[in-house]
TrEMBL record:
Gene3D superfamilies given in the database record: Zinc/RING finger domain, C3HC4 (zinc finger)
Source organism (scientific name): Poecilia latipinna (sailfin molly)
InterPro entries reported in the protein's UniProt record: FYVE_2 (IPR041282), Intracell_Transport_Effector (IPR051745), Rab_BD (IPR010911), Znf_FYVE_PHD (IPR011011), Znf_RING/FYVE/PHD (IPR013083)
GO molecular function: actin binding; myosin binding; small GTPase binding
Top-level division of the source organism's lineage: Eukaryota
Pfam families: FYVE_2 (PF02318)
Protein known as: RabBD domain-containing protein
Keyword Ligase: no
GO biological process, one term: intracellular protein transport
Coiled coil: 22-49
SUPFAM superfamilies: FYVE/PHD zinc finger
Main subcellular location of this protein, as a coarse class: cytoplasm
Amino acid sequence: MGRKLDLTGLTENEAEHVLQVVQRDMRLRKKEEERLSELKQELDEEGSRCLLLSQQACFNQRCCIRCCSPFTFLLNPKRQCRDCRYNVCKACRVYSKRDKAWLCSACQKSR
């Protein structure tokens, strides 16, 4: 960023095309920055909510920290997320073959 382009050797059409490409790149970068900012805010809010819920006596032993659904032995068993160590239900986790461990949806997003 901040570098100047020397467009003197280009035709007017070529210079216009370069300008359009640079403008499109700037729009895409701004859009990506906004997306990442929203994702960071979402993860921060999720972390705050989980911290609050985990302070309730035995909440995470009975319910998923992400969606609050109750655990059941066969239908909705709890698994511990490798990264955050919270218990999560089957809807809020994925299995990482690389790590050979369960990850909650929030920790997977943050990776």
